[in-house]
Amino acid sequence: MAQDRVKQLLQQGIAAAKAGQKDQARQILQQAVKIDPRNETIWLWLSSVAKDDKERIFCLKQILSINPQSELAIKGLQALGVAPEQQAAQPPAVPVIPPEKLNKIQASVDEFLRTYNPEPSTILEIEWVQKNKRRYGESTARTVRRSAYVIAAGVAALLIVAIVAIALTIDLTREKEAQVRASATPSHTPTNTATATPGIPNTPTPDSVDPETPIPVPQDLPVGNIYGGTPTAVYPEFNNSINFQMQTAVAYYSVGDYDHLATISANERTAQPSACFPETYYYEAISLAEQGGRFNLQQARSLLEDALDRERVPNFATCEDSPLLYTGLCVVDYYQAISDPASPDASLLDDGAQQCSQALEADSRLEKAYDMLARIYLVQASQLGLTQSYNRAISVLTQGLEIYPASVNLLLTRAEVELSRGNAEEALVYLARAQTVDPAAEKVLRLRAEAYLSLASLASGQERLLRYGRAAIAAEEYLLFYAGDPDGYILLAEARLQEGNVDRAIFTINRVIENADDLPETERPAIIEAYALRARIYQQRLNWPAAFDDLETLMSFEPDNLTWVELHAQAARELRRYPVLLSDLDTLLTENPTRSDLILQKAQILSQTCQYTSSDIECDFPSVLNDLLTPDFVATLTPDQQAQARIYRAEAEFAQLLENTTISASNRRTALQALRQTVQSALATRETAEDYYLLARVLNELEEPEQALEAYSWIVYWNQFYEYPFGRDAERAALNLRNQIEDTKPS
């Protein structure tokens, strides 16, 4: 029974800590540690919500008393400037790592990220549901990327900071010695450098790279640390009668534990049937909306509408015209509108904007309403083409930030708006503010890396490479705090690829792909992006077998994604897997039956390629002549395409002519003369081996051996370099014709 109580208290303490309610979390965890004082996990979480460094050091030393070999506690103390046997020293206030220092220690960081495998050590028998966006309060911005990270998150942060602190200390004491350089940027004058990961060489960073100039932030912003920023207080405040239970419910909401949230909300509604407290409906409804899915969204809307429609009981709390519930309806409208990301519902977005605006007219302090209204305008601008909605979003966020200047949620949304409209530099200004408040917020670190990538894409020359190097540093910083996060590796790989470190890009992508089977379903988009990026690299390197395999995987993930089908078709063509290519072409033509380039490819395979390859594909000359390359279709093509089409028709006509045993000799010769003219006309604008081979055979049938030998000889010569599939046949035909010509010469 005691252990069950410990589990329950630890679960509640973690939920409160993740919600930013440190005092409440500390009280709960202290109760738990009184029952089980030898529990390392409790002491670790207590260290994350400690009042000050002195208390945090005490917690870590308690872990050492339980487990003297605990590397986590030892390095955690070292990160705080304390040796296990020494007194406390003051740590840095805000652990934001200067890019030039991070660049120098990156080899050590790379090795840590390569080997670190965060397996949580926990006594909890619960599964935490991932919550990755739009949480209430500032601690809400720190996403728990996977359920396995819930217990390990605090531990990983201590360990990571310890590694960085140790590396920085070494760097300071050895400033004039040889430095381990990261591969963030290329160098005009390469020097020998250490290799962070065996077999993957780094490109040295030039000494001329200046450290990034810090972005100024308002002096009155609260300064956070790796344990979290200062969360925005829950607003509106709860009624006293439901205060404690609903605070716990909000804590569950902030970590994505929606089942416990729903249970508490339902219990509170049942406990006071005559009263209607908007909070008991609102949090459950928005949690359902954020989970997505038609059923959840319908249930969320029903909850909110039922609350608004409840008949008021005199002298009891009411939900009538509650701004909080109108905000909830705005949230539901937003998520219903974007349920199909490729085609947002404009009318639902308008409805949502009206609900949020109505809520703000009644209560201008609703932070969530500002955030959701701005997000609605962002979708309208970026996906529906209503560019004026960018200004609306900025106006709404400006109003919200006047009330909540330290709101990480609003700062992040403003950064997203600026990124969407191509203003990455302005996005970095708001991200700097958000990072000041909450340095380890997951979305802040991720958007920061995205902003640097966006800036780099707009640059040119050496500046472009240097900016991609800074993007790589930003991605590394993201991974320092969220080791193993797939999105972080994707961002890092993109930066590595663009700066020219292709081997390191592939190595980074492989971190995601090799662990794909162990990642939750919510990480599938990152897995797909990893395969897509690697396939692109393989195609650029002309490694078609590897690209083909990755595209096969992508098509298994998203069989209806025509982008993958088209790239797969390209790889199949390069690998001469013609049955696969035909299948891909048919799929693409089903979606777009008039695409001329696809029709020409199919016609080539069925008229020309089929004659020169193995028997894995059959020629279909009637289909080429009657269905694909009709005169009306050919007339719509460009001159170059018309030349291709006429050659493919000529191939089909010539093959059918050879099979026709009923045609008269004169008609046969007339047809052959027309074919010769068609091929010679094509050769006047281009020269291909296939065209020469067709011309040679036509001339041979016309009994013009000298001209036929000339065409065959062209093929024989170039076959030395390109090895045409019909090269050997052309050599034999040329030899026979040469002998025939010699035999007919007068002696």
Give the strand content: under 5%
Given helix and strand content, the structural type is mainly alpha
Helix share, percent: 55-70%
Supply the CATH superfamily name of the domain at 1-91.
Tetratricopeptide repeat domain
- Count up the helices: 34
First and last CA, distance: 115 Å
Give an overview in words.
With about 750 residues, the chain is an all-alpha fold. Among the domains are: about 1-90, Tetratricopeptide repeat domain (Serine Threonine Protein Phosphatase 5, Tetratricopeptide repeat), CATH 1.25.40; about 665-745, Serine Threonine Protein Phosphatase 5, Tetratricopeptide repeat. About 65% of the residues lie in helices and about 0% in strands. The chain contains 34 helices and no strands. The relative contact order is 0.06. Residues about 85-210 have low confidence and may be disordered.
Write the layout of secondary structure elements.
Elements: H1 2-18, H2 22-35, H3 40-48, H4 53-66, H5 71-79, H6 99-104, H7 106-115, H8 149-173, H9 243-254, H10 258-271, H11 279-291, H12 294-309, H13 323-337, H14 346-362, H15 367-383, H16 388-403, H17 408-420, H18 424-437, H19 442-458, H20 461-481, H21 486-499, H22 502-514, H23 524-540, H24 544-557, H25 562-574, H26 578-591, H27 596-612, H28 621-628, H29 631-635, H30 639-659, H31 665-683, H32 689-701, H33 705-722, H34 727-744
